């Protein structure tokens, strides 16, 4: 049995089962398409539809409260896992501001690179930015907030080949893929995962601040309930929030 076919079928079953359990299967209009180049169904597009629906749905775990010590008192732990990373499009990042009252972030393309197949070569870029390999022009895209993150560059670029010989021949440089920086999670003392987000640059105080703001800012009462935050860089987070408040950023003043 082909492992890739089993993987495609499993993802397809999970996605259909998700929409069926939420009563949205007929309204979603999911269409399964076959990619002639990679010889696979376009699973990533289906996962994108499911992810957008999850992000648009109310997060019931934000208001979770139980008898576990610290949970009802509003404690939450925030931490990053750098091992949960994947390859992503190598389109150069751009430093932008979402709003005047928020710190700068890096905007990037979150799509996966083209893996190639029988009729197509692999690429460091996604299918939308394949022309970047042969053009100096950088195509800019609008990325939804849940795919945006902030910090310094996380991924070390490969060294330029010193000569045309050896393992770093110019034709092999494409093997060096850009990667994400892992996942960032908010967890209650009882083990309930309140929220998770993907990091596209290395973990930073800015990302943690925006992640907390994005998770709890929909309701003022939810935001005020966050009384205690456990973080391995907590000694730097408080001065950072004080500095952001002095600069007029939203959130720290609360």
Percent of residues in helices = 25-40%
- The Cα radius of gyration reads 21 Å
Q: What is the arithmetic mean of pLDDT? A: 75
The number of distinct helices, counting runs of at least 4 residues, comes to: 6
* Contiguous runs where pLDDT drops below 50 for at least 5 residues: 135-164
Question: Layout of helices and strands, plus pairs?
Answer:
Layout: H1 3-21, H2 25-28, E1 34-35, E2 40-41, H3 43-56, E3 75-81, E4 87-88, E5 94-96, E6 105-107, E7 178-179, E8 182-187, E9 193-199, H4 205-216, H5 220-224, E10 228-230, H6 234-246
Parallel strand pairs: 3-10
Antiparallel strand pairs: 1-2, 3-8, 4-7, 5-6, 8-9
Describe this structure in words.
The structure is a single chain. The chain is an alpha+beta fold. It folds into 2 domains: 1-58, no CATH class; 73-157 and 168-254, no CATH class. The strands form 4 sheets. Strands 9-8-3-10 form a 4-stranded mixed sheet, covered by helices on one side. Strands 1-2 form a two-stranded antiparallel ribbon. It has a two-stranded antiparallel sheet with strand order 4-7. It is built from 6 helices and 10 strands. The model is unreliable at 135-164 (pLDDT under 50). The protein is globular. Helix 1 packs parallel to helix 3 (43-56).
């Amino acid at each position: 049995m082909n492992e890739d076919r089993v993987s495609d079928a499993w993802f397809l079953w999970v996605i259909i089962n998700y929409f069926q359990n939420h009563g949205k299967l007929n309204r979603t209009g999911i269409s399964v398409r076959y990619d002639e180049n990679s010889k696979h169904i376009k699973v990533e597009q289906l996962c994108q539809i499911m992810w957008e629906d999850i992000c648009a749905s109310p997060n019931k775990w934000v208001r979770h409260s139980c008898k576990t010590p610290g949970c009802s008192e509003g404690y939450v732990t925030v931490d990053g896992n750098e091992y949960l990373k994947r390859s992503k499009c190598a389109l150069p990042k751009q430093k932008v501001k979402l709003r005047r009252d928020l710190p700068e972030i890096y905007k990037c393309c979150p799509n996966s690179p083209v893996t190639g197949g029988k009729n197509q070569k692999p690429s460091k870029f996604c299918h939308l930015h394949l022309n970047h390999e042969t053009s100096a022009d950088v195509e800019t895209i609008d990325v939804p907030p849940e795919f945006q993150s902030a910090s310094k560059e996380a991924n070390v670029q490969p060294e330029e080949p010193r000569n045309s010989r050896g393992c770093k021949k110019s034709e092999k440089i494409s093997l060096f893929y850009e990667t994400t920086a892992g996942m960032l999670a908010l967890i209650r003392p009882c083990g309930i995962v309140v929220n998770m987000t993907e990091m596209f640059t290395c973990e930073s105080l800015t990302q943690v601040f925006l992640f907390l703001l994005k998770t709890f800012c929909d309701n003022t009462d939810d935001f005020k309930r966050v009384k205690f935050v456990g973080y391995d860089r907590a000694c730097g987070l408080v001065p950072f929030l004080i500095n952001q408040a002095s600069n007029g950023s939203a959130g720290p003043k609360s």
